[in-house]
């Protein structure tokens, strides 16, 4: 609780009310749709019919939609693909970025400014979609999972944020490690990384969310819906409204299985599935954002 | 097109410049070593940068040189080496293609609308949040407004579709009460406002982070001194707070102008079927649909190269203007 300074005016009642009102509206615009989506995924056909769309007032809860999507091979497989890409991709990105950031963080080391320039140039100019596509295709990435990971594995921005943090590690700590006979690898592992947990958490989240959300690479390189990640499944079957094979879900709302469930509930259940991992990890990392971004952003 | 475009701001570049300018490196002495000696001394550091450098060389630099295919008539069976060179004829075709000019116009209009309607919102939100006294409430509100930044475009558009679309609660309500329905999700006329509203919903909350940082860096004594001199809260806002945020505001404007040719590629892509090509065609989608989908790689590459070069010019020019106004911009002089 920050205390109001003595010189500050007492807040006016109108000002306070207006402020509170604005904040409540802003939060509602973000939270109500999310709440409504989750609720719809848990609603019976009847309550979806009554609501005529997204359910806002709870009226009978059923897990049937989740039972059905977990019985759907396409969705279960896409979930596995998304998790696989996210875990493997994040691991690769983190190792590569942390090493590179530390390698560039010791001022006066040989060639670090040249390498830095090499990195930064890619932020200003890119070859565009076509040459990247032709290259990945030529390397055999078409229909191969690595094409969803490697082309975007390095984010120069993330490396710069990490580097800014590592440069800020107290030189005395590093010198002490050197005197104790630690080489660069050991210094990074035993001194720098343990003191950089906040930024590591933030950057890990950035990478993981990037992979979890990636959609365009799958559109480019994955011709077969058996290899699609979850975002492609949502795009094709929820947004474009195509009928989902093997699920009995059709756009006209007919269901061929044993219990009636609104197609909207099924779609919202898939949407909820993509939200859950983000919502689960988010609270643990959120408190680091300002610190993590601050140092990276405003250090100069 | 990389996966991680979510970076909110790139001012880290300034930090880079700073670090590079340290007069006397504390860690490594520069004296008394030959070039080869330095390489030997720093070999593990160099080795550490190698994986990232390799990935960037393969997936960023090789495609940069791959843009030469814009001067070819690329044929998928013959590859770069076997395809015939055609000079500037792809560009000639591009510049006489009305669909290309339409895509460019859409891109600039969307950028302009977003600049006017989107840009002030994170600043206002940051001021609002900064004035919340209770730090518990503040961090809770922060946590919630940052959240949509972490949703994909597919998800955000799905959410908008579910709420505002024909079957959503809004239109159901309108229909039930005998009012005309609102076809915002499919109306090409209002698409630019829809796109901006989506961008605001997704990114405005996250956008406040840099402004909050700038606000935190303002010397609190200035406020007290101003108050003692009789300045009320609005005068303090005008004479202390806003000038304190000026550097960051200019920096983000420079970035926004430099990225004027990039407007939510995935956002356009996933809504193309709903609003039609006319409203949603931007430079990136033009490149994708003509190049990849239409198997016209050299033509698409020409459009991509046009965009890449123009973007580079824009960002350098925007930075120049920032320097003229005495601000740092993206990098220093």
What's the topology here?
The complex is a heterodimer of chains A (about 300) and B (about 325).
Chain A: H1 13-41, H2 45-51, H3 64-69, H4 73-103, H5 112-124, H6 129-138, H7 156-167, H8 171-179, H9 184-192, H10 197-213, H11 216-221, H12 230-239, H13 263-286, H14 289-298
Chain B: H1 12-20, H2 35-41, H3 43-66, H4 79-82, H5 89-95, H6 98-118, H7 120-130, H8 135-146, H9 153-164, H10 169-176, H11 191-216, H12 220-228, H13 233-258, H14 265-275, H15 277-280, H16 283-293, H17 297-324
Helix pairs in contact in B: 5-17, 6-11, 7-11, 8-11, 11-13, 13-17, 16-17
How would you describe what is shown here?
The complex is a heterodimer of chains A (300) and B (333). Chain A contains 14 helices and no strands. Chain A has 300 residues and is mainly alpha-helical. Chain A folds into 2 domains: 105 residues, no CATH class; 153 residues, MetI-like (MetI-like fold). The two termini of chain A are 29 Å apart. Chain B has 333 residues and is an all-alpha fold. Chain B has 2 domains: 31 residues; 233 residues, MetI-like (MetI-like fold). At the A-B interface, helix 1, helix 4, helix 5, helix 6 and helix 7 of A face helix 1, helix 2, helix 3, helix 8 and helix 9 of B.
Integer-rounded radius of gyration of chain A: 25 Å
CATH architecture annotation name of the largest domain in chain A: Orthogonal Bundle
What's the N-to-C terminus distance of chain B? Answer: 29 Å
Main CATH class of the largest domain in chain B:
Mainly Alpha
Order of helices and strands of chain B: HHHHHHHHHHHHHHHHH
Rg over alpha carbons of chain B: 25 Å
**How many discrete structural domains of chain A?**
2
Looking at the structure, the CATH topology of the largest domain in chain A is MetI-like fold
